[in-house]
Amino acid sequence: MKTNRFPILIAAVALLSWAVAVTAQNPGQRAGGAGRAGTQGDDLGFTDTPMLPGLPYHVHDPDRPHPAVVTPASQPGGPPSDAIVLFDGKDLSQWTFQRRAPGGGGGGRAMTDEMRAQMQKTQASLPPLGWKLENGYVEVIPRAGDMVTKEKFGDVQVHVEFQMPENIQGRSQNRGNSGVLLQSRYEIQVLDSFQSPTYADGQLGAIYGQWPPLVNAARKPGEWQSYDIVFEAPVFEGEKLVKPAYFTVFLNGLLLHNHKESMGPMVYRQVAHYVPQPAEDSLLLQNHNQPVRFRNIWVRRLGGYDRPEK
User: Fold this and answer.
1) Rg (CA), the chain
2) At 231, which CATH number?
3) What is the pLDDT of residue 168?
4) Cβ proximity of 259 and 40 under 8 Å
5) φ/ψ (deg, to 5) at 244
6) How many CB atoms lie within 10 A of CB 305?
7) pLDDT one-digit tens code per residue, 170-184
8) What is the pLDDT at residue 122?
9) Domain enclosing residue 133, as ranges
10) Is residue 258 included in any domain, yes or no?
11) Phi and psi for 296 in degrees, rounded to 5?
12) CA nearest to 164, candidates 156, 150, 174
């Protein structure tokens, strides 16, 4: 018997169109629902996807830990919800003050008996330890010690704002000199580099004595400036260095260093090299006998990927 196949063909096309529409509305749906996580219509992950290389997770794995929720500050540059606020313009309770060894470079240098004797001889002529706190900022008092955090840190994100005097005097390294020293050792230079020449690896934003910044992003003296620094601490196994320190640095929103390896702790007129150290140590603001001001200082401890959810 001869059959009219045209209506059957129309029905088949309609059924295929419906199937395509359903699939488009539910892109995570697999044949028979295999590998689907969550309720129908949700896209919460898959377990029938390939494994990520070197990881215990599938692509889009529903069991992969979610990152912690951190609330950003309401204003740019402000501390987020997980920050440790080191200075909010009101008090210096998170800090202490200390003097470096005479002739010393970066923090953490061991003091010899000769250095200690020299320091004791000059103690009487030095001002008391401590910087000037007023109007929401803290200002360096020459010869009154470095400002050092009581808490010690390893891998951190650091935000610090600073200002050179508007009527600044001097030239080269004697012009608004200070420094932000991670673990009291690894220095990002603070200096007036606005139309003020000095050696490249000692200007504002340099990893001091090692790497000049990628760009000169300095503002005029008298204007507030900001550093955002990501620091990865070095790792030692006994006396052996297994991973060097790394810096990623932004000045006034511009990238200066992109995961740049440090050669070692800051040193003046020498080649830096590593020596064994604690896994964590203090953040230090350097006193270079220049009236530099600081405000809005906070840090965030940094962890790795795929940490267990709390």
Assistant:
1) 28
2) 2.60.120.560
3) 84
4) no
5) -75, 175
6) 8
7) 778 777 799 999 999
8) 65
9) 84-301
10) yes
11) 45, 70
12) 174
